[in-house]
């Protein structure tokens, strides 16, 4: 069993990291616009620093990003030249509903995305569209407290109903919430949550989680009603936890940390809160407020497929003396002495991808889709913007070998593979441009200087060959 002729090769971006045009086309302000460069970024993402307006002390890279708002036609041509079968992108919620609570959508926003989808279709590229990629209208935070408020489910339903109807026939593959488990690790990034000093943060996070999961079920229901051809998936920030040692306590901690992330997908794919979660809530005095009918909705509107991001595995230990953590990732991890690390301290583990695929497929028995995978690195272009990025090619080659083995040797059902940041974009965790993932170099630096000119890296031609050969030619 090989990858098959319909395997969806492509690349992935997010509106907030690539689009720019934050104040154009009647777009409203979103959470992700307000993530600054610099030391305060992590505090804002965690909901500890409240930043709901721009100020003069910070640089906000998402305002311009890589200006795909104006350059998407040429960018899509480059994707088509590589041979993309699919392009994963997100819709900016505030382009469709600038404040989030309007009854009628913003027609300029609908037209903008319709034009993108038609351009993709012109090049026979299947859009894979994320409905909420770390994207909450700021007005909904100010007026309602964001996802802590049940009313958000209704606002999201209105947004979903609008885009599913408007783009019927143009988009078939949808994802509800990007890295839905990120709410536990970066609550403002994941759900627009800002905490008050005396709040029970765990209670707020898990209640907001319930509202997002309800919204995901509602979206799944509507997608199938509007067009039975629609395929809708969930999206997990993936990567398993290894025990640091063979001490039973370390293994038990790894199981516990994995469950923390699986909880979301257990509900979206299986349709009910698992017993381990109910016991956790009981132990920790967390009370999830549900309405009548919530459990039925979750049960009857599970996702069609499971997508996930994979950059690295993680390591956990129970011995407090084992404290040497890796750098740079939102997910804390003990350093794995058996693995190399990227320049940002993310550990490189292709075999971990094969393991993750097997674990997810064994657990859910639903088709899988790798929608983010890539290497963030400093690229040094020549005078023509060309980059000899053999380090990126090596990273991707080994991960492609790993997922091919999961399909061909283990029997995992895999729909496709979209590398993260197929064109250089703003890093989510750091806000940097210098942390580059793309096959296409974009002339812009961390301070916002540069021409925004696009140029092809060595990896551009390599990935073109990979797609043409359906993953057979990886040299």
From TrEMBL:
<dbReference type="InterPro" id="IPR017853">
    <property type="entry name" value="GH"/>
</dbReference>
<comment type="similarity">
    <text>Belongs to the glycosyl hydrolase 1 family.</text>
</comment>
<dbReference type="Pfam" id="PF00232">
    <property type="entry name" value="Glyco_hydro_1"/>
</dbReference>
<feature type="active site" description="Nucleophile">
    <location>
        <position position="372"/>
    </location>
</feature>
<dbReference type="InterPro" id="IPR033132">
    <property type="entry name" value="GH_1_N_CS"/>
</dbReference>
<keyword id="KW-0378">Hydrolase</keyword>
<keyword id="KW-0326">Glycosidase</keyword>
<dbReference type="InterPro" id="IPR001360">
    <property type="entry name" value="Glyco_hydro_1"/>
</dbReference>
<dbReference type="InterPro" id="IPR018120">
    <property type="entry name" value="Glyco_hydro_1_AS"/>
</dbReference>
<protein>
    <submittedName>
        <fullName>6-phospho-beta-glucosidase</fullName>
    </submittedName>
</protein>
């Amino acid at each position: 069993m090989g990858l098959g002729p319909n395997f969806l090769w492509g690349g992935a971006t997010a509106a907030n990291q690539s689009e720019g045009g934050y104040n154009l086309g009647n777009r409203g302000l979103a959470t992700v616009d307000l993530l600054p460069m610099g030391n305060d970024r992590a505090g804002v993402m965690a909901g500890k620093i409240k930043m709901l307006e721009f100020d003069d002390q910070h640089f906000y890279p998402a305002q311009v990003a890589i200006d795909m708002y104006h350059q998407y036609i040429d960018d899509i041509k480059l994707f088509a030249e590589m041979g993309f079968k699919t392009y994963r992108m997100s819709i900016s919620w505030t382009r469709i509903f600038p404040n989030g609570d309007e009854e009628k959508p913003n027609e300029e926003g609908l037209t903008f995305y319709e034009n993108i989808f038609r351009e993709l279709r012109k090049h026979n590229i299947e859009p894979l569209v994320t409905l909420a990629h770390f994207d909450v209208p700021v007005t909904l935070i100010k007026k309602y407290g964001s996802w802590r408020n049940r009313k958000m489910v209704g606002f999201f339903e209105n947004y979903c109903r609008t885009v599913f109807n408007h783009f019927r026939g143009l988009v078939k593959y949808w994802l509800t919430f990007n890295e839905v488990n990120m709410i536990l690790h970066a609550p403002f990034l994941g759900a627009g949550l800002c905490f008050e000093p005396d709040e029970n943060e765990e209670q707020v996070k898990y209640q907001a989680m319930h509202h997002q999961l309800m919204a995901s079920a509602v979206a799944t229901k509507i997608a199938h009603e509007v067009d039975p051809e629609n395929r809708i998936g969930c999206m997990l920030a993936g990567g398993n936890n290894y025990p640091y040692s063979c001490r039973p306590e370390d293994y038990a901690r790894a199981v516990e940390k994995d469950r923390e992330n699986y909880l979301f997908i257990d509900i979206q794919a299986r349709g009910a809160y698992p017993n381990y979660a109910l016991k956790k809530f009981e132990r920790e005095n967390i009370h999830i407020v549900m309405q009548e009918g919530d459990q039925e909705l979750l049960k009857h509107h599970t996702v069609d497929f499971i997508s996930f991001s994979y950059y690295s595995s993680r390591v956990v230990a129970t011995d407090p003396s084992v404290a040497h953590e890796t750098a740079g990732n939102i997910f804390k991890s003990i350093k794995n002495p058996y693995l190399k690390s990227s320049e940002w301290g993310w550990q490189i583990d292709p075999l971990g991808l094969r393991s993750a695929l097997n674990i997810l497929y064994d657990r859910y028995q639903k088709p899988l889709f790798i929608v983010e995978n890539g290497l963030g690195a400093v690229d040094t272009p020549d005078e023509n913007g060309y980059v000899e990025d053999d380090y990126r090619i090596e990273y991707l080659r080994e991960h492609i070998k790993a997922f091919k083995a999961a399909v061909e040797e283990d029997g995992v059902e895999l729909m496709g593979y979209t590398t993260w940041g197929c064109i250089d974009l703003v890093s989510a965790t750091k806000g940097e441009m210098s942390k580059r993932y793309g096959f296409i170099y974009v002339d812009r630096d961390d301070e916002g200087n540069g021409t925004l000119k696009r140029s092809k890296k060595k990896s551009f031609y390599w990935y073109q060959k990979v797609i043409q050969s359906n993953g057979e030619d990886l040299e």
